[in-house]
Task: structure prediction
Amino acid sequence: MATGRTHRPATRSRGIPEATVARLPLYLRALTALSERSVPTVSSEELATAAGVNSAKLRKDFSYLGSYGTRGVGYDVEYLVYQISRELGLTQDWPVVIVGIGNLGAALANYGGFASRGFRVAALIDADPAMAGKPVAGMPVQHSDDLEKIIQSNGVSIGVIATPAGAAQPVCDRLVAAGVTSILNFAPTVLQVPDGVDVRKVDLSIELQILAFHEQRKAGEEADAIAATAAAADAVVVPAADSVPPPATRGETAADADADAADRKGPDGDVPAVMPA
Amino acid sequence: MATGRTHRPATRSRGIPEATVARLPLYLRALTALSERSVPTVSSEELATAAGVNSAKLRKDFSYLGSYGTRGVGYDVEYLVYQISRELGLTQDWPVVIVGIGNLGAALANYGGFASRGFRVAALIDADPAMAGKPVAGMPVQHSDDLEKIIQSNGVSIGVIATPAGAAQPVCDRLVAAGVTSILNFAPTVLQVPDGVDVRKVDLSIELQILAFHEQRKAGEEADAIAATAAAADAVVVPAADSVPPPATRGETAADADADAADRKGPDGDVPAVMPA
DNA sequence: ATGTCTTTGTGAACGCGTGCACAAAGATTG
DNA sequence: CAATCTTTGTGCACGCGTTCACAAAGACAT
Result:
């Protein structure tokens, strides 16, 4: 998942560990599904399977919220849905603004799930004057000149940034100055924010790179296994990837890498959004 | 950030801790920016600031890759870019398929950053026959009937799922059966996969819920602070959120929550994608 | 060459998160 | 009402990740 808290790393807020908070939405989703099927109770084992976690972990997570289960029976689905919703603050209304209405911003605006959990898209904002007034997801795009006014008149405290990388920090600064204290960042940049402001980032490019790493490792292990079985006779196998460019004493090996970097530096830096470099 | 590894939790692959792997793309991006500005070397301190991490952490991360720095000077930017790229497997070509070409899928397809890091969109796949042949991001959408054929003929090992929640697991199963071993999931579902397959998820809804939690906590602390200063005279303050619905012995308190759940269950479950419930 | 100054690389301590394993609690049955 | 059975809640131990703090390494000046 495109994850990444940025600030407030281990701030175990009110005794609930950050790791637990991150799992509560998962439990909530599983519980909501059960609720829709009118299932009255679940055991920690069943719910854990549905949420893709360990049952001991789930029980410990719930223990931070209080003792909402019944021994020998399990957890009351509806009651737990309510408790978790309340704990996450989903029983209240959260107006949200989306800044940067490109492909991604429009996709986010069109997402129907916002309203389903207490989140409400209060405004769509873009810097392009040509976008102003244009309806996206049944809502007129507003120009970023009015950003501060929009934030304040709607009491917005959560902002979503879906701008190109270059615009993200300035937009972030304006959001924060206008009173936003939580930001979800889709732009491929590390945002600098003052204390007290939470930033979470969604970064497709990073996720893909992590997958590529594991993919490469799997391929390597496979190759190793093959080499191990096939070899045993001949000592020298295929040259390992490590040995490709002679590290040298630095100085001009760098030139090679330089060429590479120059080749691929094109589209990054100012792309629409979603995946960072 | 919308993150979340699923399987292979702490598989410290080849001695490189998972947490370090997750930060390498961050360093790489910062280094690429320096490279474009033709900066020859950076200190761990400078680079750490740019990447938004602690310098000790950065040095330790790099120490897992080898000793690529020079004491008293810092790190050679180009050399490090090359080493990290190689470590992440970005020096090779990774064909990727995107399944589910709705708003989000189209946004992803239009993202220009794919090609910039060794990733190449090999195909766009959708289950809607009306989409077949329609060009998106200059590439014709193909019907999901041909999914297996497409995967195999292109040697795809990484798949991106941007379908509605209900379609995600079946699509995942087909991808895996066809040979995909890494999946980036945008659908709001927990995917079940066999051992050896990596799944990462990007889940907007979860990210927003986590932000809401912290937002609520901030508001609560503020209120507490105000209460603490203003009160001191009157013992009973505003009823805490905790006491709103009398927990009762369970049984019909559930009915209240039930009504709530019914109200908000609408748009979830089968939404386009991006944010899960 | 020698000394000084900068910055890396890492040993060690600490804290958070995870998972085991079991005792306590309650439901259920006879 | 006693016995049995199920499932929660948690004490404990372990391991990963983070951070501190410093010795070693090298650049640079004299």
